[in-house]
Amino acid sequence: MNLRFLRYFGLCAPLLMLGGCSTDVFRLFHPTGPVADAEYRYTLILVGVMMLIILPTLALTIIFPLRYRKARKAAYAPDWSHSLGIEIAAWGVPFLITAVLIYYSFNGIYAVNPYNPKILDSAASTATAPLKVDVISTDWQWLFIYPDQHIATIDDLVVPAGRRVDLRLTSTSVMNAFYIPQVAAMMDAMPAMYTKDAFLVNKPGTFTGFSGEFSGAGFSWMHFATRVVPTADFENWVNQVQASPKQLDYTAFQKLAQPTVNIGAKPSYFSHVAPGLFDKVVQAAMHGVVYNVPDSLTKGVADDEGKAGAKAPAHS
Amino acid sequence: MATMTKAGPDTRLWNPEADEHDSISARTFGFWLYMLSDALIFTGLFASYAVLSTPMNLAGGPGPAQVVNITEGFWQTLLILGSVLSYSLASVALKAGNKGGVALGIVVAMGFAAAFLGFGLHDLGGLMAAGNGPDRSAYLSMFFTLIATHGLHMIFGLLWMLVMLVQIARFGFTADVVARLLNLRMFWQFQATVWVLIYAYVYLMGAY
Amino acid sequence: MHVDLQGPWSPLLGRLTLGAIPYTNPILIGTFIFAATIALIVVGTVLYFRKLPYLWREWLTTVDHKKIGVMYILVGLVMLFRGFIDGVMMRTQQVLADGPHSAGYLGAAHGYLPPYHFDQVYSAHGTIMLIFAVTPILAGLGNIIVPLQIGARDMAFPYLNAVSLWLTVAGAALVMVSLFVGDFSNAAWVGLMPLAELPYNPGVGVDYWMWALQIASIGTTFNAINIIVTIVKMRAPGMGWFRLPVFTWTMLSTNIIGLTAFPVLTVALALLGADRYLGTHFFTAGLGGNFMLYIDLFWIWGHPEVYFLMLPAFGVFSEVIPTFSEKPLFGYITMVAATFAIAGIGWSVWAHHFFTMGLAPNSIAFFSAATMLVGIPTGVKAFNWLFTMYRGRLTITTPMLWSITGIVLLLVGGLTGMMLSAPAIDYTVHNSVFVVAHFHCMVLAISAGIFSAVVYWWPKVFGFKLDERNGLAFYWAFVIGSVLVFVPMFGLGLAGETRRLDYLYDPQWMPLLIAEEVGIGFYFLSVLFFLRMLYVSLRDRVPAKGDAWETGRTLEWMTHTPVPFYNFAVTPQVHSRDELAWRRANGLEEAKPDRYVPIHMPSNTGVPVIIGLLAAAFGFGLIWRIWWLSGVSLLAIMVLVIIRSFNKNEGYILTAAEIEAMENKIETASVIAEQPKRLPLSEVEAH
Ligand code: HEA
Ligand code: HEA
Ligand code: CUA
Ligand SMILES: [Cu+2]
What we know:
The complex is a heterotrimer. By secondary structure, chain B is mostly helical. Chain B has helices at about 25-50, 65, 70-95, 100-130, 140-170, 175-205. In chain B, α3 packs antiparallel against α4 and α3 runs antiparallel to α6. Chain C is an all-alpha fold. Chain C has a two-stranded antiparallel sheet. The interface between A and C is large, with 124 and 118 residues. The complex binds heme-A (HEA) (2 copies), dinuclear copper ion and copper (II) ion. The site of copper (II) ion has 4 residues of chain C, from α8.
């Protein structure tokens, strides 16, 4: 269904002008890949359906006060306060609209269900095995582990184009949310448990990922690069990272998970990632392992970010 | 207008007699509403208990079956029912206007309640001594909190009874005092009901 | 039970040290000087004019529902202003801290606020606006108007009413104190879990948030009981359920929500408190804790809470629109039904706040559908207001303008809310500023209701109208400000800006951010116009009539303006839904009572305000872990309550002759005028 023209509806037009006449800024108008496409399509459908009732109501809210002002001496019915027909319509029309909305909402839930998006069931995306990526949010960085490749990165998610990516997400400490506006459904990363997310992007491109759930001092810097690259480039990149001198076992991970503000979201790369690291992190959180945020990072109203970051490591 | 009655010559516009509002019934209703909100606090706690009593929440610590003491709980239930009964006898005496009877009923109710609390403290104390305090696991946090919240209600009731004893002695059965005694009765039955629910849900269902 | 606190503790002062006072932070010092100056001016004026006894006698110790309402609203407006300043700080930070090359000032790497300060600002803003600004203002309106609309002398429990007020004030005071002693929470108004737990928030901030909320919500629960009993038990003769004014209906439904929802918050906060103070593990990630339980409990309260705030605003629209349309409200019965439908459905939708937590698709579907159902009764309300205006004879006064604006905001907020309730959309904008823009439309609709109500009922309380010209300027500045701030915010949400950012990643957002900052300028103007409106109206004080707008329909317009402290000289007999309109139609609106009877009035008491003070001390002691202070305050509260229960002071009697005299000389009987000095009943008996 092509409903793109709806983009220019109502609110959007002034927004576009404010945005300097370019729609590039509006990431959600540029969905990439089947999941984001579907989300965008549902947005247009639902907004379109609602406009059928919201716009007329809005119009009447403006028209009636203008038309029935005292000065205009329009028709006046001082006692009229009831009409069965209108009241039935007042309940019935929203009811119908709501029914339609619920119908599309249900469809949408299963289509883009982050655990298992129906929209990705097509042949193209099941041809190759999905790429597995385990995502751990720490205070305050994103660690991406590629369990099959035994590599890991910080704040740099690189995936091959045209291949489904299956994510598992957890957190070392507090809640976070994994969010790449143009690409994948937002999904929370929580300590002591894991959630799932999945996406697929067909064409190479670069995107920005953000953390969606506030998590403390370094939250604003928890954005990460997302690079979708051709399969060959991906293999190359994996090989490069596999040669990285930095290695990641659980002990190294514990150092890394100490609260740090990564100003500038600078990436790092690790080879030889210990197998099962992700599960171990989940288990550890269940057993009460916490990475205390030092008081200097929570109380230092007058501290600047740099100093706060420097002060961070202090073991629990 | 459909709802409009026409005014006639004998239409009454002011109603000077309407001023006497029955403040006792307003107070009783208000107290019911308070108990409703209090009941919702317990609902919240019960719901939390349901969530926090799965094997996941034990963190390797003891679970319901090891924590609850059914027999002690049974005696506690009897004590609390005895206390309610005794307070009810006090209300019977209240109808007869019998000061001594009311006071006696309340004192006995207080005695039962104190014994109940003694059992409870012994129970919780034992758990803590064995290293199973509320900081041991989420389940134990919840167990202690539920029991303690109920216990606090009882202590509050005891304090209230104490005050009422003094008020009966000083004022006799004035409207205020009677209203308070009646509200206290509702409160006391409410707290006992909560205990019975705890006993059924936490003790009996936990143990079996 | 060991709780690991970082930093020192002493028995006398708990965790409080000189370091807790941020005397090195220029922003806070500035704020402190500002606040201290205002406080000095206020206190100085009071002392200079020797008004302290008057304040104590007529306000601090009052149990009059109208004065209590006025104080509620005053506190709310001051907090609204504080919340606005927080909004200014956030907007300014975000416009300064956009892009990697943005400059840093005052020691911040970007913008002028380091992360933890910014986080406290938005957490305080959300908490203050919802709990300490809008809630008290609406409670105040209910207090003033409900007894008048149902023809009652007072609230059912005047003394409890004062206690509610002072508990709310105690909570608000704690939030204000956190500015200058220690910090406020940085875990958002919702108390993000497990972020609000001790390992991640070892300071006192979360404790400030938690205790302020806890104390104030006890006050709100008491107030809910009071209003419900008042409406159920104190209606004037003839006022059957279906003659109840719609504002009173909405206050009833709102307070039923309040009474039943706030206990859930109490539980959530109490369990969090146990975690932070006793070392339990309710909401920790490890040792069996379950922080999703907190999130559930919070939103089981939190969602009904937003309708708790919205419904009274709906009530205001339903009073203002008929009055200025000179027509009865369209579809009264369906209006009432819709009110309760909203309140009811509101209980089953809470999970729409966490669609992204990985719930099973089937439960997501349930909560999505339930949420969307709310659109139906809300739509009914919108249509009923429209058809009230249809074939009306409209006078577009400022209250009317605000109400119409409220409907528009409701439609925009409703459209976007319905979008969010579809998970496929929510996955793309959850926790983005799109959500922030959605709910600001809604809370601005509430604000519109509030401004509408304040202007509408102002003459009833004070005896003169507010200046329309400045009111109009205030309106336009506020509306333009709102459009400029929140329309671009929708855009930024679609651009992927997540909420609660102290540093923004994308320099391309700049134009929209600048538009928002311009909006803040208009907001500033609006505050100036608001103050000017107060000043001009106070200076001119054109006396208003009993039926100040001349087209009032409900009972409150039947008594004098300003309302005498005894409300109605004689309780009216009610014949119709819009009693005053009915009397007008029958030419009876001027009818005076032919005889007066004595009125029993409650006496003033200083106990409530002292309880409020003690409650604040109790909270402060807990926050800083000064155990003796909390213990002593709690004990003192209990002793006070017990002592008062021994007090037989049962108010005083106003004789028929006195009432007649006052009715003939009404200026002396106004709310703001002093009440006659009167001996309490018990002492009269003793003589
Ligand atoms: C009732 C609720 C309410 C109200 C009215 C407002 C009003 C405003 N809010 Fe707020 N806001 C929230 C509730 C509210 N907000 C909540 C709950 C959050 C989420 C917090 C969180 O994330 O945890 C939030 C978050 C929030 C953000 C955070 C965005 C982010 O997360 O990145 C921002 C940023 O711009 C913002 C701005 C504003 C502005 C500019 C106003 C303006 O509309 C304010 C306009 C007000 C005035 C202009 C004052 C008028 C005053 C008077 C007329 C009285 C004058 C009286 C005296 C001087 C005595 N709000
Ligand atoms: C007073 C406040 C208020 C009100 C009234 C509402 C009303 C609604 N809200 Fe909103 N909401 C908030 C305050 C409010 N909300 C706040 C504060 C948050 C964020 C909290 C936080 O995270 O900090 C929030 C967040 C929020 C979310 C979570 C978003 C997220 O975090 O990702 C959702 C999702 O479903 C939602 C939905 C709705 C819906 C469907 C309504 C409906 O009630 C709207 C119904 C109205 C209409 C639909 C318009 C009129 C109707 C018609 C003209 C009839 C016909 C129309 C149709 C049938 C479509 N709201
Ligand atoms: Cu939320 Cu797991
Ligand atoms: Cu909600």
